[in-house]
Protein: Amidase
Organism: Sedimentitalea xiamensis
Amino acid sequence: MKDIYLKSDATALADLVENGEVSADELLDCALEQVAALNPDLNAVVMMQEDLARRTIREGLPEGPFKGVPFLLKDLGAEAVGFPLNNGSRLWRDSECDHDSELFIRLRAAGLVTFGRTTSPELGVGPVTESQVYGGPTRNPWNTGHTSGGSSGGAGAVVAAGIVPAAHGSDGGGSVRIPASSCGLVGFKPTRARLPAGPDSGEGWGGMAIDGFLTRSLRDTARLLDAVDGPDAGAPYFPPPLQDGFVKAMQRPPQQLRVALCATTLSGTPVDGECVTAIEKTGRLLEDLGHNVVPLRLPETLDVEAMMLAWTRIVACGTALSVRSVLNGRPLDPSMVEGVTRGAIAYADEISGSDYLQAVNAVHAFGRRMAYLFDGIDVLVTPTLARPPAPVGLLKPDSEDFLAYRTGPGGVFDYSPFTAIFNASGQPAVSLPLHWSADDLPVGVHLAMPFGHDERLMALSAQIEQAAPWAGKQQELIDRLAGPRAG
């Protein structure tokens, strides 16, 4: 049974349950066995609720597309009764939820068996997952000396290691795509407001945040997105409706596309040689598939740095609001939050209301400039990160200089200069596992399309997966971690 579990994606496991070949309890047994074996080294799974998961199975699972498949929620948002939250912070430790988020309601209706949560940096701020509430960093299963990414770093680690075939994540500046790149997975960020955010969030970080998933196979991502598609009632944004859905989009090969490659940042700064190699390989692949591939001509007026500064101000204000809301007038014990959080609060205190609105306007103005960038192209291809996954500790959230941590030399935006761009613009973007470095670390390739073109991006991704499948490489890691029993 374990061998079947480790070699199957969520879609295949659901088919086995549907056909009566395995039971939901047997699959949960496998997931729990994997947690026991691998989590001590990875530090990725928290808030285990086996009894609740067993009761959910006994009471009868919905006839959804993932009936009986074990699943994990990110320890940030995704409110669900019976699954307490840390939000990556000692300040929220074991906070009970008295209601279900709309996202969880839809995931439960899909038949998933949720049994715990995965680690996140404090309040989702950062491209690494090294929160003091978990007692240590979350580590990358490809090499535990390196980060699994952030903010959905726990989700990336558990999927790559074979603990579960798919897991929930969220993405406010790359927090699904960064761990996807770091862990050799698929991470798809849909168009703004494609997925529900309520009832607790009106808009995350000025409309930049959205939920998502970490998966090994593209078809799992497509089926999960279809299962939860559509904003909830009263949402402040509304995306262009899908034509047929993500799964059907995978079955339609795209017509010839105009592809722009960029092997530097969008400001022209060089990136690691492994990232350049990944882009060159992908360019050749896309040409072989019949697409028209050209180098991106960087516009002088894009001004990514101005957007990143505005994004930093919005995140600082959002972080300060979250902390003060939970304190409810009580003084903050500085030891209860990370240094970066203390720095964000201090930085937010320097930002006036008009400064905040100016930052929101700057982000939306940048989104318009990005729309013009796509006026002559269908897809932009870049690295997901500027280098392979960083060593543990390199971006540890200790610094109280929030601006320097985000935008200074060697900071967050030097490491991740691509992903937040598409949170700002609201465009769909995906990280695909198309390259591994010389020392066997994953290097993701990032593809983005115009606002609302989610299905077209999914169709291109499916064409790429078929031409350059990555499942075998992922399975090498799972088999290695499982040892002799995985033959």
Notes: The chain has one domain: 2-486. The chain has a mean pLDDT of 97.
